[in-house]
Design goal:
Blueprint (H helix, E strand, L loop, with lengths): L1 E3 L2 H8 L6 E6 L5 H14 L4 E6 L9 H6 L4 H10 L4 E3 L3 H4 L18 H4 L3 H16 L3 E5 L3 H13 L5 E5 L19 H17 L5 H13 L4 E10 L13 E9 L2 E9 L7
Parallel strand pairs: 1-4, 2-3, 2-5, 3-4, 5-6
Antiparallel strand pairs: 7-8, 8-9
Helix pairs in contact: 7-8, 9-10
Bound molecules: adenosine-5'-triphosphate (ATP), pantoate and beta-alanine (BAL).
Subunit structure: Homodimer.
Organism: Luteolibacter algae
Family: Belongs to the pantothenate synthetase family.
Length: about 280
Amino acid sequence: MWIANTKPQLRNYLSSGSEKIILVPTMGALHPGHASLIALAREHAGKDGIVIVSIFVNPIQFDRSSDLEKYPRPLAEDLEICEKYGADGVFAPEANEVYFPDRSITVTEKSLSENLCGATRPGHFDGVCTVVLKLFNLTKCTAAVFGEKDFQQLAIIRRMVRDLDLDVEIIPHPTIREPDGLAMSSRNTRLTPEHRADAVRIFKALSAARQFTSAFDIFAAAKSHIEASDHAKIDYLSLVDANTLTPAPDLSAPTILACAVFYGDVRLIDHISIPAHPQNS
Ligand SMILES: Nc1ncnc2c1ncn2[C@@H]1O[C@H](COP(=O)(O)OP(=O)(O)OP(=O)(O)O)[C@@H](O)[C@H]1O
Ligand SMILES: CC(C)(CO)[C@@H](O)C(=O)[O-]
Ligand code: BAL
């Protein structure tokens, strides 16, 4: 498996040419969720295609400097996981390799990023879209795999591909969870044992709320379940239309119940789909 730290090195490794190049963009601190994305990329690439994993903690998508500073960076372990699950190469650049000091172009999505993480992490999706477009261009990928855990990110990337006519197939991957239901996330390693135990409530709350058939009951059930822990601070808890990601006042169409919750300074996200209940709208 090759490792490129610079753009010229990457170009060099790509010069052999292959019809299929599948990219798995990550920020490292890889866990079984990422491993599963890499394995899916391998499946799509077949034996002749190329699977590239990018490992880059993208500074311009962080809204809190402490979150960026504390983001885990276990590169040696990450490289082992990439190799084990079938990557052909890893692109792991430093920030000054990716961005020009006088960078003046940013990609902004102006609809799907209005709510949820886009509202509570200002500038986050500008940073995501900008780096993902650069990674698509640098790797010349024909397809890229993204996790459904970050469903707003997935929707925005799909919109960017559509609106900018990018020739990249977007391959989604379902959320991988710990045995107790907590969505796997690189930030989970930063939870204290007490907060880790409480964080189980997030998925339990979403699952319990899903059994109700009115927007009011769903919201109330999820909120009380999460807030039953004194440690939890809800950043947002929202029912949104599954297509537009705008607030859904009722269940006349399929919706998504999504949340971001702080345990100390660690912010976790999760969501669940809610079927339409037109009779209650
Ligand atoms: N539990 C998971 N199941 C499926 N895909 C996941 C999971 N966790 C992350 N991914 C996907 O992996 C890719 C890289 O995500 P990233 O490196 O930010 O990891 P992360 O675990 O989401 O970390 P964090 O949310 O703490 O930044 C994204 O497409 C993301 O959706
Ligand atoms: C897509 C991504 C790698 C862009 O930095 C990041 O947002 C992530 O890891 O989900
Ligand atoms: N997986 C989302 C990347 C971030 O939280 O910045």
